[in-house]
Amino acid sequence: MSDFNPERALYEVKREFGEHGGVCPSVDRSSTFTVMEPGLMPEIFSGLRGPEKDGCFLYSRHFNPTVDVLARYLAALEGTEFAVCTASGMSAISCAMLQICREGDHIVASHTIYGGTWALLHDLFPSMGITTTFVNPANPDAFEAAMQPNTKLVYVEALANPSLRLANLPVLADIAHRRGARLIVDNTFTPMIFSPARMGADIVVHSLTKFINGASDMLGGAICASRDFIHHLMDLHTGRVMLLGPTMDPRCAFDVIQRLPHLGIRMKEHGRRALVMAERLKAIGAPVVYPGLPEHPQYELFQAMMNPGYGFGGMVNVDCGSAEKAEALLSALQNKVRFGLIAVSLGYYDTLMSCSGSSTSSEIPPEDQATMGLSPGLVRLSIGYTGGLEDQLAALEKGVRLAGVV
Ligand SMILES: *Cc1c(COP(=O)(O)O)cnc(C)c1O
Description:
Helix content: 25-40%
Bound molecules: pyridoxal-5'-phosphate
Shape: globular
């Protein structure tokens, strides 16, 4: 188990208070900033005099004080030197990849990843001359075998969407680094639970839209990495975040800043309830997949990689076998027993439920879904923490029986 404590790291980072001593930070919504002496402008513009070097902020697509506070907190959470926030998880992922790969380069990626990321690698990047080999995330040898001389990047999700397969991060970091490639890890499903940078990942990306924000009311993303890499992303001439421009709005940054202090409490409760529900599903004979059950093929690996105390995450899968059964289950759980809401996305305080094959993974054709073990009957549950746990358990069991899943 890891000895990194992300909650403590987040608490110990320099706190930002409001302009007038408020307990909340101020929101600086300015797009542009006053320069006191015209002679300073060239040095500020060229990055020689930022706010930390006796200069000032310049323009909010470059750096904004409020968005910077969130970036500092996220860097502390992930144990990286620095971070940059973006307008969505996809922009964080695409900018980080495009900063490293150009025409002629190659990526080795897990074949079980978020549908949008899969489409980016499978459908968009080839038109830019960047190719990807997809491999089973649970099999490090497959990564080793897929590495080519032009491989610049290894890409995985720490806990994969939607399969809940785990990537062996220390081993993959070693494989990437021995070949001069970098490891990017999407940690969207497992903030606090895993600290990929502490296990060798060079870059950690997040969709802040999910657990980190926790209220399903905004989109956001983040790239946590070395100070150098973030400076490259913000370079005036070639920075992918700077020039492609997926800037986070300071008001969104403020909202996430206010929710980070209870991320740890939320992750523990998502995980506590998910485990109890997975155990109940198992007890009644439902086809449940959850990394906190000893039956999960990577139960031991999960424990070896996790930061202790945050549980096994809030995502539970029920494989109903067919799309019809999956729809019957969703319908029963939402409309008959009021267990959760049929909606894509995850990390909300209420339970969200979707059939991955026909929604968030529908970019992936059926034959590729089959290769990655994504059954058309897979129902993905993002377990919330509202309502009494006993009532929720009873509703879940009733819904599963009504739908004929057991
Ligand atoms: C949702 C999601 C993304 C994309 O994030 P957006 O904020 O919707 O752009 C990327 N990776 C994973 C694992 C996700 O669940």
